[in-house]
Amino acid sequence: MKKVKKTNKQLTPQQALAKKKQKQKIIKICLTVFVLLVASAGVYLGFGIFKQVEGFSKEKLLNNESSIQVSANGEEYYSYGQDGIRKNVSYDDIPQVMIDAVVAAEDSRFFEHNGFDLPRIVKAFMGNLVAGRITGGGSTITQQVIKKSYYPKEEQTIERKAGEIILAIEATSQTTKQEILELYLNKIYFGYGNKAIGIYAASKYYFDKEVQNLTLPEAALLAGTLNSPNKYDPFKNLKLAQERRDTILDLMEMHGYISKEECAATKAVPVENTLKSNPVSGSGKYQAYADKVTREVFEKTGYDPNTTPMKITTYINTDLQSKLNDISNGDGFKFPDKYLQTGACVQESTTGRVIGVLAARDYVPMGTTYAYAASKENMAKSGNYRYGQRNQPGSSLKPIISYASAFEFLNYSTAHYVHDVPYSQGEWTPSNWDKKYHGDVSISEALSQSWNLAAIQTLKEVVNKIGTEKMTEYLKGFGFDMYNEKLSLGYAIGSWDTGISPEEQAAAYAVIANGGTYIEPHTVEKIELIETGEVINFDETCQKEKVQALSPESAFMIRDIMTKYVKAGTGAYSALNLGYQIGAKTGTSNHDKHAPNKSLVGKSKDLWMAAYSPDYSWSVWVGYTAADQKKGRYPQTTAANQISALIAKYVHKGGLKNSYPSKPSDVVSAQCISGIYPYVAPGSGVPSDRIVSGYFKKGHTPGSSANGAGLNNLTAFSAAFTNGKINVNFTEYDPKSMTESSTPTKVYTINGRSWTLPYLGDLSQVYGKVVYAIDITDQNGKIVHSEKLSTNTATLNYTPPAGTYKVTGYYAFESGEGTSNKIDQTITVEGSTQPASYTPANPTATQMSYSVVVPSGSKITVSLNGQSQTLETSGTITFSNLSPATKYTVTFVETKANGDTQTLPSHEFTTSNQSTQ
């Protein structure tokens, strides 16, 4: 049947009117809700702005205190005010040319507006819109003064911007333009480090002159730095500074402050001709540590100690910092050349408190440091955070990446054996430093010898079990910055995408010393904002936010291995065997085919030594800058080891203050057979060289006991007596390799090449190599001879007397218990025709001997006064303890193979007197 399509029912006029009214009602409700939301937002925003501006005071703008850093005992060791904001300059002492340059560069309508310049804001907004990002804020000089006094964090919010505008208008009404400009020039940041805060310090920093003596090219240079002090500092970026200065001169001409001729003439003056000698070439006594504190405070709080007065309490060890400075300056330590760079970080193991940093050789204030680095994410997003250099860790993280993770996720024992065998993935075919493979080795040997392939194969087992995502999270738990890191097996030997810093490494090794607990490294205990009295407790927060990065059991186990091979004092670790229970690991990264200089391929690039004790953890890096690498320089030195040893001696000079956490109750000692996994306990007969002791997690101890191993069945065996010798023949054992070496082996094939390497994983090979065993039993059931043969066909090294014998053949292990099935063969040895006889010796006072010939298959019994002795083969028989000068009779009876007997003639003799020779 054909379906009929339904149509909507026609509405009546009354229904249509009702529907229209309903729609209008809905629209009214929506508009009402919208208006209420906007009004609520306005009220909320207005309240927020009101709370910001209600406390405005002119005095707050005039606060000129500077920040300081103090040690934990309250002693001031660093101030941000040297030649800076502590010495203000009055407006009358500022030359007009400086005023003109700043106004032209920063706020051309400064003397006209009321603190807020609407055209400037609109222009900045349009520029940001075109650029698709914030390129400028359009703030007036007055707004910048407000921002530095009231909004030191410089958050980009609508509330903040609105409050800033209102306060700027209020400030203009309560102060003069001259006061505002004076405040601005005495607070603003003009350059690199903390030595150019305010116009007075900047004049000294760049030109070594008083403010009132500044000239046009100098004023234009200073005004140019305000936009980006670090970027346009001529001591760092001369070309950029020259270009920026000339831009300011153009602005001054455009706004009528100088003529076209003055502009051109001033541009002709090179910037370098106006500067004094470079003040950035050196740093203060504690500059390296102070700069780390400054960066830490800014990254954690958004406050800049250079512009926001504060008291910063830190954990600096001034004696240690001085020692690290001496090392960096080559005072008491000799570097191989003037180009080699280094960085180091020292922290307390149990608290995360950084007590000293070796930032670099020839370190300059706020310069590049090799001890720590900015967040990778911040470095990727903002140039303001670009400081510090990370480097490839080489093997220095193998204990954490490969072996601690195996304890954690695979429940390995310290007695575990890992596989140092070939590996290849695509074009990547890693090797060991000695260009050899070592087969199955203990974790201790793998670490102390730094075998690459063992670390790679172990990490492979871990990743196969837990996956790369969980492994990445594991490394994050140790404090490693994994931003944009793509985990691969290369991480086991240091092939990171962006590398690590000594600070990260020292903090990670503190985890092992601290029972598996990670505490973020930090230099600051607390900061106190001088203007508000607010206290921010850094250390308290770090201690609360500590993370259990590794179980106490796994931390104990990797620590046990590391401290033991350091205590053994071999190789690079001998310098750290100081009696402080130190654990350590070296590391070397090498240049690959992408090296900046072709001659560097395969040469070392980064050298590391990371170490820890119950009290401290520290990490040292040495290497060359990218510029020096291009010139073919590469490190050939033990400097990292030497510096590490100097640090160890210095921080422990008073002895240990702490001890490692005790052995967890879930860790037990046990024995197992080396190389067998799952673990097997050794039973009777297991060779001692295959028994190892170690620590195991409860629930993962050896689950069975080996008392012998099975061997293949012997299928055929023969024995024959030919030409006076016994010849035997066995079926050859399969596999033959088990009969050829006492060390079990396995063949590994990679890329068409094969290697035969030690392999301990076959329980059947625990007892050594397989041999061909023989037992010979006489007709009385006595085994008269046993022999183990290395070949399946042989002539025995034994000729039995005449008689019938059972020859038994079987497979056996060279050492230990366990045999195959046994096969018996019977042989007959024919007797000799030589008759029985004896030959007496000369008697002494107490002894008589006879040389007796025993025919094959017979035995002779010799008797004297009830004493009897029997010979089955020809030999000598002796009677002792006889009396002197006494007559004796000896009898001889032969018993033949068929049981018949024959009596030989007896023999009489008389012993001699005692005095007779």
Automatic annotation (TrEMBL):
The keyword Metal-binding does not apply. Coiled coil: none annotated. It holds the Pfam family Transgly. The chain crosses the membrane at residues 29-50. It comes from the Bacteria. Keywords: Carboxypeptidase, Cell shape, Cell wall biogenesis/degradation, Glycosyltransferase, Hydrolase, Membrane, Multifunctional enzyme, Peptidoglycan synthesis, Protease, Transferase, Transmembrane, Transmembrane helix. Residues 345-643 form the Penicillin-binding protein transpeptidase domain. It catalyses: [GlcNAc-(1->4)-Mur2Ac(oyl-L-Ala-gamma-D-Glu-L-Lys-D-Ala-D-Ala)](n)-di-trans,octa-cis-undecaprenyl diphosphate + beta-D-GlcNAc-(1->4)-Mur2Ac(oyl-L-Ala-gamma-D-Glu-L-Lys-D-Ala-D-Ala)-di-trans,octa-cis-undecaprenyl diphosphate = [GlcNAc-(1->4)-Mur2Ac(oyl-L-Ala-gamma-D-Glu-L-Lys-D-Ala-D-Ala)](n+1)-di-trans,octa-cis-undecaprenyl diphosphate + di-trans,octa-cis-undecaprenyl diphosphate + H(+); Preferential cleavage: (Ac)2-L-Lys-D-Ala-|-D-Ala. Also transpeptidation of peptidyl-alanyl moieties that are N-acyl substituents of D-alanine. One of its GO terms (molecular function) is serine-type D-Ala-D-Ala carboxypeptidase activity. Residues 79-252 form the Glycosyl transferase family domain. GO terms for cellular component: outer membrane-bounded periplasmic space. One of its GO terms (biological process) is regulation of cell shape. InterPro entries: Beta-lactam/transpept-like (IPR012338), Glyco_trans_51 (IPR001264), Glycosyltr_51/Transpeptidase (IPR050396), Lysozyme-like_dom_sf (IPR023346), PBP_transglycosylase (IPR036950), PCN-bd_Tpept (IPR001460). In the N-terminal section; belongs to the glycosyltransferase 51 family. In the C-terminal section; belongs to the transpeptidase family. This is Penicillin-binding protein 1A. It comes from Longibaculum muris.
